[in-house]
């Protein structure tokens, strides 16, 4: 009984001390009631306010792990047998909460569009480029170029990198954005230098939304055998931005990407998890032509599958600037012009190979 009385006195003293020091601001009560037990009108008002992290009153100093409403509360014993303090860790599914490869970008991560000429990096394969070892190269018999792990970091995020893409509808130039996602840029650079993207199709084209490619199988299900982690993102999906495609699962981006043909920032919501890694700086007419090809119903149930293959024939990476023969750069965010479907490719495409699997896609519209 004496022990119980002592505990009650201790509890009241703690409540009084909390009130005297402004504890009510942390969810405390003038009645000395524990902060996680509001009553009557107080409970109604609390429900209307943003969540607060209350002090827990747990006898015996137990360490408890509580999962509720997307918040994990880690209970740290305060040293008192009668009280423990709850420290909250927010695990809301946002881009920033995903495990990033680097801190969230701040400010203008894109910078000025480069105009100086760069040096072409040789497409010398997966091993000679330093991206993978021979032991990491695997094959599933359908898509020969696959690896057991993401590539080693071979780029310098402080450098300027661009990519010259040749398609059967014309060329385009991208400015790669390691400031936004060094891991995604490094993966793209390594895949390009290994020849992974050679003759890969743009398999999904949606009006006023995106053109998607990067899967050599042409099915929307292929990948390089590894995935890269989600990175904290800037959330800019304006026209011309190039973004990694992924499944609904976290950390599921591989080789597929999409070019935003309109401003999709509002479409992807306030907490996007799709990784931006490049932007179109030249060859907008090529983007326009691809966006306007004749299509039929695709695997996504929409009129999104090109009637004739649209191919990414090759990718050349430049370090330090742009290709010498690049077209005059266009301002990032330039919308795709409205043109009729049925544009004519520059050269005829080869046959494509399709395999079953789980589609990697952008959000449905």
Automatic annotation (TrEMBL):
Q: Which domain of life is it from?
A: Bacteria
What CDD domains does the record tag this protein with?
cyclophilin (cd00317)
Task: Return the broad EC class.
Answer: isomerase
Entry's EC annotation: 5.2.1.8
The residue ranges flagged as biased composition, category Low complexity, are 13-23
Which region ranges are annotated with the description Disordered?
Answer: 1-50
Biological process (GO) annotations? protein folding
Q: Does the keyword Magnesium apply?
A: no
Q: Which residues form the PPIase cyclophilin-type domain?
A: 167-317
Question: What keywords is this UniProt entry annotated with?
Answer: Isomerase, Membrane, Rotamase, Transmembrane, Transmembrane helix
One GO term in the molecular function aspect is: peptidyl-prolyl cis-trans isomerase activity
PROSITE patterns with a match to the protein in the record = CSA_PPIASE_1, CSA_PPIASE_2
Q: Where are the transmembrane segments?
A: 53-75
Member of which family? Belongs to the cyclophilin-type PPIase family.
Name of this protein: peptidylprolyl isomerase
